[in-house]
């Protein structure tokens, strides 16, 4: 306030670097689990995809979207999540460090807070950490290409991991042998190995594994039963009440093609 006296030490604030994100650009924060290769091993993650871990990641991302301001879409796969702030957000005067640290710390505390809801009998053995970065995209096209890049990465890794773990778990190859077997193979080769050796049609693998998870805001009807107080003759009776709330809803759809953006034009408004 105006009455607050400034101390002679106040000048040190001028050493803070300006990290304002360029006006009107999309601000993306991506976080990624620190050394989750090890974390997955220590917590007995199912290979290639532990669905508990993926659902926990998404719960944390929903918490980030609901607790913080101005996030319009998020995309997650493996141990990473990306959050996109609306172009004209002025949250914390667009300071990159504020965006990044609030996202990552909210996510990390949620990961620990909600762990038991997803991992029930698997104790959390040590506190996980996440790194974060901020990237600013100047146009709708660069933002869409950014998200396409992450989904393409999900596809490439998941196809590889699906074949790799089939070779290890079903054919008894060692990890080194499986890696050598896959050296230099193309997408078509991997699909062929899955189909001919394991009778797996890759396109029938779960969408969450193949596409990752998109979180967007959608109106959801919440049905709940409410205790009715008045009038007296209805005392103790229960009433069904429906109210509409806007929630961060998970989808496992393609975001590389135009269809998704045509269906949800409000995201890029
Ligand atoms: P860094 O600290 O550099 O990110 P990292 O070990 O986390 O190191 P990543 O490239 O981020 O390396 O890869 C994450 C790893 O975590 C994957 O390779 C995989 O082994 C594991 N992992 C993450 N999520 C899951 C999951 N849902 N199911 C199975 N394994 C997972
Ligand atoms: P912001 O998100 O802007 O940081 P804030 O409410 O955290 O908002 P701060 O200026 O960081 O504001 O002040 C932290 C506040 O937290 C203090 O004003 C005080 O009310 C409370 N607080 C923090 N630590 C303690 C503590 N150990 N004992 C009592 N109150 C505390
Ligand atoms: Mg990495
Ligand atoms: Mg990682
Ligand atoms: Mg990763
Ligand atoms: Mg504070």
UniProtKB/TrEMBL annotation:
Mg(2+) 1 binds at residues 32-33, 79. Its cofactor is Mg(2+). Keywords: GTP-binding, Magnesium, Metal-binding, Nucleotide-binding, Nucleotidyltransferase, Transferase, tRNA processing. Its EC number is 2.7.7.79. Residues 141-257 form the Thg1 C-terminal domain. Binds 2 magnesium ions per subunit. The keyword Metal-binding applies. One of its GO terms (molecular function) is magnesium ion binding. InterPro entries: Thg1_C_dom (IPR025845), tRNAHis_GuaTrfase_cat (IPR024956), tRNAHis_GuaTrfase_Thg1 (IPR007537), tRNAHis_GuaTrfase_Thg1_sf (IPR038469). Pfam families: Thg1 (PF04446), Thg1C (PF14413). It catalyses: a 5'-end ribonucleotide-tRNA(His) + GTP + ATP + H2O = a 5'-end phospho-guanosine-ribonucleotide-tRNA(His) + AMP + 2 diphosphate + H(+). It is an enzyme of class 2 (transferase). GO terms for biological process: tRNA modification. Gene3D superfamilies: 3.30.70.3000. Residues 9-138 form the tRNAHis guanylyltransferase catalytic domain. The keyword Nucleotide-binding applies. Signal peptide: none annotated. Mg(2+) 2 binds at residues 32, 79. Homotetramer. Interacts with MFN1 and MFN2; functions as a guanyl-nucleotide exchange factor/GEF for MFN2 and also probably MFN1. Adds a GMP to the 5'-end of tRNA(His) after transcription and RNase P cleavage. This step is essential for proper recognition of the tRNA and for the fidelity of protein synthesis. Also functions as a guanyl-nucleotide exchange factor/GEF for the MFN1 and MFN2 mitofusins thereby regulating mitochondrial fusion. By regulating both mitochondrial dynamics and bioenergetic function, it contributes to cell survival following oxidative stress. Belongs to the tRNA(His) guanylyltransferase family. This is tRNA(His) guanylyltransferase.
């Amino acid at each position: 306030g105006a009455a607050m006296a400034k101390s002679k030490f106040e000048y040190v604030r001028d050493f803070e670097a300006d990290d304002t994100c360029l006006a009107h650009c999309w601000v993306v924060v991506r976080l990624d689990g620190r050394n989750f290769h090890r974390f997955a091993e220590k917590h007995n993650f199912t290979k290639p995809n532990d669905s508990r871990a993926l659902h926990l990641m998404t719960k944390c991302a929903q918490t980030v979207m609901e607790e913080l301001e101005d996030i319009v879409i998020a995309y997650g796969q493996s141990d990473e999540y990306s959050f996109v702030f609306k172009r004209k957000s002025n949250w914390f005067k667009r300071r990159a460090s504020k965006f990044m640290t609030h996202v990552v710390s909210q996510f990390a505390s949620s990961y620990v807070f909600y762990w038991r809801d997803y991992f029930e009998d698997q104790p959390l053995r040590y506190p996980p950490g996440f790194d974060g970065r901020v990237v600013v995209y100047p146009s709708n096209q660069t933002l869409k290409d950014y998200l396409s890049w992450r989904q393409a990465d999900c596809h490439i890794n998941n196809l590889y991991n699906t074949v790799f773990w089939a070779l290890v778990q079903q054919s008894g190859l060692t990890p080194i042998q499986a890696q050598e077997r896959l050296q230099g193979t193309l997408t078509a080769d991997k699909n062929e190995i899955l189909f001919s050796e394991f009778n797996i049609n890759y396109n029938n693998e779960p969408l969450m594994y193949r596409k990752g998870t998109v979180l967007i805001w959608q109106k959801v009807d919440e049905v709940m039963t409410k205790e009715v107080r008045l009038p007296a003759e209805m005392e103790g009776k229960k009433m069904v009440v429906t109210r509409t709330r806007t929630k961060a809803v998970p989808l496992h759809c393609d975001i590389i093609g135009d269809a998704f953006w045509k269906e949800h034009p409000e995201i890029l408004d």
